[in-house]
Specification:
about 55% helix; about 140 residues; mainly alpha; flat
């Protein structure tokens, strides 16, 4: 017995008239659609995250300028550059160069130690000049 006839036998007593196949198709499509909608809403459900809402204000009726003054969030509150930028750059560049040199020394030391302890195997190439080639001899398998 097919599922459509089961659906017809279940719906006929409730409705009181013969159910057409188009109604059955409509019900089946609706079931599929509702399942797809459920899957889609599950996939698009927002994750539980902390809301950074703008509903919370700690200004208690103060003006924006007064709040900015209290929180020191104005442009005039930003630090003002002072001194030579070249001296600052050279000092930071010296630090970065020391870090680079330390990294290179550590890498070279690691490779040397690995080579001495046979931990590192660098697959060397055979000397191609010592290989004899006999062109007329067939390969043996």
């Amino acid at each position: 017995m097919n599922p459509e006839s089961d659906l017809v036998s279940a719906i006929n007593p409730l409705v009181g008239y013969t159910v057409s196949s188009s109604l059955i198709l409509l019900v089946n499509e609706r079931r599929m659609l509702s399942r797809q909608v459920r899957q889609l809403t599950t996939a698009l459900r927002p994750l539980a995250v902390r809301s950074m809402s703008t509903d919370y204000h700690d200004d208690h009726g103060k003006s924006g300028a007064q709040v900015a003054l209290e929180h020191r969030s104005r442009l005039s509150d930003l630090p003002v550059p002072e001194g030579s930028w070249q001296e600052y750059h050279n000092k930071r560049n010296t630090t970065f160069n020391l870090m680079l040199a330390g990294g290179i020394i550590a890498f070279i030391t690691t490779v040397i130690i690995m080579k001495q302890t046979d931990t590192l195997y660098l697959h060397g190439q055979p000397d191609l000049k010592k290989i004899k080639i006999e062109p007329n001899k067939p390969k043996s398998t």
